[in-house]
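User: Hey, quick favor. My workstation is busy. Could you predict this chain's structure for me?
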Amino acid sequence: MILVTGAAGQSGSRVIREFVKQKTPVKALIRDSTKAAPFMDMPGVEVVVGDMLRPETLGPALLDVDRILMISSSGVQMADTQCTFIDAAKKAGVEHIVKFSGAESGMGFDATAFRFTRMHEEIERYLEGSGLAWTHLRPSQFMQVYLREAPSIIKSGLLALALEDATLSPVDLVDVARVAYGLLTTSGHAGKRFSMTGPEALNMNQIAAAISEAISKPVRYLNLSPEDRKKVLEATGMPPYFVDAMDEQAAERRRCPVSRIDTSAQEMFGIKPVTFAEFARKNADFFRASPA
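Assistant: No problem, here it is.
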């Protein structure tokens, strides 16, 4: 049996939907039972409630599980949460963990300069030393992060970021979910690391142009100062820890403005990578109207 942790989150829920699409049974671990409703009508999905940081709650989740996709929310406790969970999984007899990790596409990006890639690397090392079979899936920036900018696009026609002329190669989470499904349901991937980007390296003017074409409304990129971008994030109610993390990430992206492209993971499973233009068209209604 396969278990997907963090199943109520943006990434985990897409992976669960891929299992449903492929008619493959799966366990979905959620921490909050009130978030179980979306899974109730999904055939083949067994919802289990437990806290990755509290091994005593994980008995039903880990029962009869031999392979896991490990995802948890990004936060102060991410490393503690995932390392504690690795120990619990090993004790329960799990054989293989696929870590949903992360990597930047910028050439020369210093992973130690951004707290979340730093934590991902710490967890990867811990998993590699655990004695379990392991695989690391390392997608770059998700295309879905641009949905966060919808309010500014709707109100002012602006994609306002502090990225100067850096290029990024964002990947659609739908593609990531399909690759994750492949890694979990086929053999031969133990001890391997899979980086994953979208099929194009785009600067923010090109991102704005793709959104503009998709919604038939002018959208332009406004390069903010780092200070002004932090004020924008603070105004949304984002916690200071995350505001500082986003500032670290943007600074390193400005320092390493040339992005690489790696779609080998998609190619391995016969997946045609989604382009940003396709993503923008698919989500045009979201960019046109204020999100709920």
